[in-house]
Amino acid sequence: MSNKLCSVMQPTFLPWVGYFDLIDNSDDFIFYDDVQFTKQSWQSRNQIKTANGVIWLTVPLKKHELSSKINQIEINNAKPWVPKLLKTLFFTYQKTKHFKEAYTFFDDLFNAKEYLMLSDLSISIIEALIIRLGMCTQLHRSSNMKDLGDDRELRLINICKSLECDNYLSAKGSALYIEANRPSGIFPDYDIELYYQNFNHPEYSQIHGDFEAYMSIVDLIFNEGFEKSLEIIRSGRGKHLRSGQFDL
């Protein structure tokens, strides 16, 4: 294998800045779209800060089985959620310095087509954002990969092998299952180096009072603009962590 580094995350709706740091920090990023959907999770909603506090931006969904995978979830377009979302963005951020460029981008993005599937919507948004931000990471969907198997850890190993990545960068939260039985899990058995993301949320100029972290990237872009956003995201990046170098 090569010296490439890859990371895997479920596609989420308008993710927070740390999600984009993980993408930018990887040679290959895999949208983990063929795993079980979690109701009322980041997969279908995210937060922004308004004059009245933090609120949710939510995609309405059609009824589905509890066992449905992320890439099987349909959007309920019978509800006028896109105009409502854009109206919320307009009134929340109309006084920001970079309102015009940011609002035009999101207005064009959400009105470009009517998405039927949640995963297609979320992935298309992320793809458009990383291009606009200037990232060069190669993107993939796990649902397009063959012979990944069903075992949770082995699927990650097989993803790395299929993309010839001998380094894997994980979000810290995944350590709970990766290292459930032993440090670094099974990655050493397959000669794959396991690292964990080390990201300290940077502060940036933000309207509506004291700084609120962990908002959707939408908040950063409206407040700081596209040109400065990637620099701000990268400013929160620390050296990769190893097993045992942080608390679970």
From TrEMBL:
It holds the Pfam family WbqC. This is WbqC-like family protein.
